[in-house]
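Quick question, first post here. What does this chain look like in 3D?
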Amino acid sequence: MNCARGADEVERLHHLQVAERRYRGVFDQAAVGMARIGPDGALLEVNDRYCAITGHPREGLVGHRFQDFTHPDDLPAYAERAHALLAGEIPTFSMENRCLTADGEAVWINLTASLIREESGDPDDFLAVVEDIDGRKRAEAAVRQLNETLELRVGEEVAARLTAEDALRQSQKMEAIGQLTGGVAHDFNNLLTVIRSSAALLQRPDLPEARRRRYVDAIAETADRAAKLTAQLLAFARRQALKPEVFDVRERVERIADVLRSATGPQIELVTEMDGGACFTEADPTQFETALVNMAVNARDAMPDGGRLTIRVRPADRVPRVRGHKAAEGDFVAVAVADTGDGIPEGAMTHIFEPFFTTKPPGKGTGLGLSQVYGFAKQSGGEVDVASRCGEGAVFTLFLRRAPKPAATDQTAAPDAAALPQRGHILVVEDNEQVGAFSTQMLTELGFEASWAANADVALKMLAGRQRFDAVFSDVVMPGMSGIELAREIRRRAPGLPIVLTSGYSHVLANEGTQGFELLQKPYSADEITSVLRRAIGGVGAART
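> Answer (accepted):
Ran it through. Tokens below.
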């Protein structure tokens, strides 16, 4: 029996030695770092690969705690996992942490630890397998930094591009302003030359009546041209006061067709095409006709040797994408003006609606016609599009919002001009001293009694006084209380008092309309102011009777 037990012991020892050699072979020759760590974290043994990864010699590791070589920021996570492992709460754990080398640098490792159960009853150790992931972590960090740098560089590039675009837009604005002011100055200097020359000639003594009449007519005609020029500029700037009403676009085009034929001349064949039924819109009919004439004249000038001009009216359910603005769905009326001319040069397409821009020879056009079309379309809630190819003509399409057919209303006969009152006391409210004094004098010479208030506050005090006024004639743009605000206050205090507004420019009127008040556009003539005031006073008198 003793011999048998001795043989068994020898065989067991042999197996242990074989297992130990195998373990040692695996431990020492493993391609990954391996270490046996005690319950307190002491490194009991390490292999060569572990030393290479951590950058410490074997004697610098064994006997020291694993925690001594761990980055301080990673110690809490390691302590938590090691405690759970030793307590039997988890069978293994794996974590990425930084190991401090002998040079004090931090290298990234992946630590996988498993518990080793000792048969001897000694405290449990655990086996740690360490992989070198420093290259991967540094590559990831480099990629993150690259991404962050790339985002920064892209942001800087975008910011630089936006700055450049802003500078370009500002430059283009300044160029457009220079072109606009130059065009305005040129045209107005021409008009002023005629007016000043005619006025100087009128001052000559013993001037024959025929020549005096001719000079007066020249001044009046030139003033009308100046007023038209101002109106076209206001149209482009969308600052004109429109008087919208519902009308049939088809009927309006047919009505003005003969005028367009006269404007385009006998060499141009003008054709109208009406698709679908009635096409009503709500817009200023006078400005619509002006826009139509401007487009027709522009088409005529593109066909110096004659051609065909087609005006087509049709319903439309959308406005295409125009000049960077997205397409708009809805109910529209489209008025297309097509010519068979030479077409528009590609470089001019982006400038054709700018004031004073023209491809015509000097003296052949002001460059304001298409800008009026653009301003009218925009201010009316519509759009204008253009399509053209060199040698194939051009098509300008005006889009206006479609309106329902108006209900039939009783037509009240307009008062007879002879039945209107000839006189009345007018309160003129005008902040410009010259205009105020001249308007008051002109009304007096026209047979009215007139008083002048330099601002709205003075006007309200005069209205509250003992003087009785038959109407108020007020400018719109004034410092302090505007003419619109004054008119509202007068309407509140004296609902029956007629109010006539006048303005040459007002963004309030352009954006909000006349709000029910009579409007006389500057510059106005003696006949126009007489007619509007007599009509206003007569209308109130008729209402009172």
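The domain at 246-401 is CATH 3.30.565.10 (Heat Shock Protein 90).
The chain has four domains: 18-132, 139-236, 246-401, 417-544.
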